[in-house]
Amino acid sequence: MGVRDRRRSYLILAWIFLSSGLILTPISYFLLRSTVFTALGSSLLILSAVLLALSSGLPRLPEEAGVLMMETSMRNISRLIEELGLRSKALYLPSRLSGNLPLALIPLRNNPEPPIIRRSLPNRLIVKYGDEAWEMGLLVETPGTMAFKLFEKPEEATASTLESSLSTLLVNLLGLVDGVRVSIEGDRSIVELLNPRIELGEELRVNLVLGSPLASTVAQLMAESLDKSIIIEEEEQREGKLLIKMRIIGE
Question: Which has more pLDDT, 26 or 169?
Fold first, then answer.
């Protein structure tokens, strides 16, 4: 049973117990004068409160663990990007186009426009993504690939469902931000992260290629949820928030 199914079950039971307790307790106390049934009604109210708490609560990793997970995964990719001198922006692919896991394609040749991937790429580090000889790239795991294992992919990808799923992961589970806002208009999406725990920091090459750890994570999960490729166009750090501007690429 998935997280969403467990949450739904808790909510249904909670409301059943709550309504039963609200009816049984006053009737037992004022009309029946029964201590046993009054206690039963009170127990139902307590159980409903516990179930409501369980429906909204998820086990949360320590904040330091979430930050460490993001930074460590970026550090390994950073070494590879620095060694090869790559500058092309990464194209975040859904698992449909990259194998069993969502991955990022980094073209070896810098192009003004990102490639359009129409077929699934082989599960290799160096891949050929087009018909031309120079259309080669690296297919790499990102912080979002790791986070995907904890992510509850929405059944229907809309701005509101994506906002809910990203909030569950980044706020409730990893504790990396205090809030998430998602907007989608055509082939553009803006995700706003409130009070991020990971700052943009210095402009390392890995950040220019993949984006910051948080932006990389969001882009990868958005690509998987929308089942389309995504490229990060811009990040903007404001007071208490990080704006991630992305372009959705796909048919």
Answer: 169
Neighbours of 26 (CB within 10 A): 12
* Per-residue DSSP letter, 99: S
CA distances from 231 to 8, 53, 190, 193, 218 (A): 34, 38, 12, 17, 11
Cα separation, 84 vs 80, in Å, equals 6
H helix or E strand, kind and range, residue 56: helix 35-56
Q: Which residue stretches of 85-133 are H helix?
A: 95-98
The answer to whether the beta carbons of residues 198 and 212 sit under 8 Å apart is yes
pTM for the full predicted model: 0.74
Long-range contacts of 231-238 (CB under 8 A, 24+ apart): 231/89, 231/90, 231/91, 231/92, 231/114, 232/89, 232/90, 232/92, 235/200, 235/211, 237/199, 237/200
What are the tens digits of pLDDT across the range 92-109? 999 999 988 899 999 998
- Give the distance, in angstroms, between the CA of residue 182 and the centroid of all CA atoms in the same chain: 11
Q: Give the pLDDT confidence score for residue 2 in this predicted structure.
A: 45
Crossing angle of the two packed helices 3-26 and 35-56, in degrees rounded to 10: 160
Residue written as token pair 């031309």: 132
Dist CA 72 CA 227 (whole Å): 26
CA–CA distance, 219 with 73 (Å, rounded to integer): 15
